[in-house]
Write a structure and sequence with these properties.
This protein is α+β, with helices and mostly antiparallel strands. The protein is about 65% helix and about 15% strand. It has helices at about 20-25, 30-35, 95-105, 105-110, 115-135, 135-150, 155-195, 200-250, 255-260, 265-270, 275-300, and strands spanning about 1-5, 10-15, 45-50, 55-65, 70-80, 85-90. The model has no long low-confidence stretch (mean pLDDT about 85).
Amino acid sequence: MRIIKHKLIWIDVLNPTKKDVEFVRKQHKFHPIVLDELLHTSARSRVEPYDNYLYLTYHLPMYDRNIKSSRRAEVDFLITKDKIITVHYEDLEPLNNFWRRLNNDKNFKDRAMGDNTGRMIYQLIEEILAFSHRQLRHIEESVSELSRELFKNQEARLLEQISYLKRDILDYSIISEPQKIILESLKEVGGKFWGENIKIYLSDLAGDHLKIMQELDNFKETVNALEQTNSQLLNAKTNAVMQRFTVLAFLTFPLVLFTSMFNVSFISNYIGNNPILFSGAFLFVLTLTILMLLFARKKGWL
């Protein structure tokens, strides 16, 4: 647990224990159900107004290189008129960045923790949104790599990379999309809690979130286009292979016919026992096969 006191108070709790929750309980008359919620992660995001405080659960995407996709991280906010309590269940870069800025930049500290917790929650969520935007960089890098590798005869390998990338984009969207509703709700609830003047700041948060989702949609469309192109290249290569096998089967038809003739007893006894006729027939079939091969190469079938 770490605490910063200025005109306002920020209490940040990592991996809360019952002792931590008891400390939070002493800070304000929070509802017991809300306090129990702090001991574990929540399945959904929400904004819940109470008599003199707000309870906010916010989810953000974090890229996990082990699973090659984004996973859900959570921050819970207990917001009163003079303090903000954040609770999270893993070490989070945006909260650490916010902590460092408060300690190293006095002007920022005066601005963020100056008059009311509405401005402070705005700065906190703005830091989280900036982090969420940075989390798109690995998607952008993957899309750029796919574009570079598209025409290098790596269709099968790219198909696997595209599948991972599409799953990552989907997971990111599943986590981030509901936060749009949360930020819109926070704007309405915050207007009643802090006054109408705070709405312009909270509207800015919703706008920044919209920019992130629009950029994600652009990546989604680009990946779909790359997938379609890659599939076309793979189909073209498959068709070319099938064409070659078909031509080869056609070219070997005279030889197959020649060998099958010896299954007929009359031809087998008549030609098989005559070396001159056998050699002549074999040379004729071989010449015919070579001529067919040259014809196929001239036509570009091989």
